[in-house]
Design goal:
With 192 residues, the chain is mainly alpha-helical. The protein is built from eight helices and no strands. It has two domains: 34 residues; 128 residues, no CATH class. The protein is extended and about 65 Å long.
Length: 192
């Protein structure tokens, strides 16, 4: 009989713990408000506003380009050059695609989803995301200007094999049925 109220309380806590956490954070914020000059909040608000303006200026054109990619690029082309059976010949294509793009990392995710829907192998999507995060041409030019071309070349030559190995490992960790619709007829993916 004593276990029943405890189970009820655990169930209630499990159900409402996010709201309880939010209430605690709001109470701590309200408690600290009179004791601070609120400069941190103003800086956070300015950063949020500039981030929202940046997203509003970058994402709509990116979604337009991804939409055009979905329409103009046939699925067979992506499957041939970056699909499950493409092997190592897809790596230069993924790196080239990633290096010529500009923007922050959240711009790469719509492109990655578009590639995956068109039949790109998961390992190639991971290689694209890794190369995008570390090898964009605008980023490389800044790196060369501040750290020199030797450092930039060494870092790039070390990064590429790391991206490839991590992409293959991550693809093997995915469940076997993790494929976009229409890829079932290709059978199992080829090893890199």
């Amino acid at each position: 009989m004593n276990g029943r109220p405890v189970r009820k309380m655990r169930k209630a806590v499990g159900k409402y713990w996010p709201w309880f956490l939010f209430a605690c954070v709001a109470a701590l914020w309200a408690y600290s408000l009179p004791q601070s000059d609120f400069d941190f909040g103003r800086k956070a608000g300015k950063n949020l506003a500039s981030f929202l303006v940046e997203m509003a200026s970058v994402l709509p054109p990116m979604f337009l380009l991804v939409g055009l990619f979905e329409i103009w690029v046939p699925r067979k082309v992506i499957e041939r050059y970056a699909g499950l059976r493409s092997g190592m010949r897809a790596v230069p294509w993924m790196i080239l695609l990633a290096t010529v793009q500009a923007g922050t990392l959240y711009v790469a995710f719509p492109v990655a989803i578009g590639l995956w829907r068109k039949g790109c192998a998961p390992r190639n999507v991971f290689i694209y995301l890794g190369a995008f995060s570390a090898m964009k041409i605008p980023m490389l030019t800044f790196e060369v200007a501040f750290l020199g071309w030797r450092f930039s070349l060494a870092r790039t030559l070390i990064s590429i094999p790391v991206f490839i190995v991590l992409a293959v490992v991550m693809e093997r960790l995915l469940p076997a049925d993790f494929r976009p619709a229409g890829l079932e007829e290709q059978g199992e993916g080829a090893d890199v």
